[in-house]
């Protein structure tokens, strides 16, 4: 369980530091996650918080880090 938690933190750090998403934007997606069990990257894209290029960067990061 701890590994998953650490990876979640690493993903949130990546979103904030590498893609310059605000904590508010990330919080919006996480809140929607309560109602829609879609993966976080898809929620970010669905709600217009990242574009397709940024979504691809997130998916690449996930592929290389999880």
Provide structural commentary:
- The chain has 66 residues and is an all-alpha fold.
- The chain has one domain.
- The chain has 4 helices and no strands.
- The longest helix is centred in the first third of the chain and has 16 residues.
Radius of gyration: 11 Å
- Please give the number of β-strands: 0
* Broad structural category: mainly alpha
The total of helices stands at: 4
Strand content: under 5%
Largest sheet: none
How many domains is the backbone divided into?
A: 1
Judging from the principal axes of the Cα atoms, what is the shape? globular
Helix content: over 70%
Assembly state: single chain
**What is the terminal-to-terminal distance?**
13 Å
Low-confidence segments, given as residue ranges, are none
- Element order, helices and strands? HHHH
Q: Kindly state the mean pLDDT as a whole number? A: 89
Give the secondary structure arrangement, pairings included.
Layout: H1 2-17, H2 23-33, H3 40-46, H4 52-65
Short description:
The chain has helices spanning 2-17, 23-33, 40-46, 52-65. It is mainly alpha-helical and 66 residues long.
Descriptive keywords:
single chain, 66 residues, mainly alpha
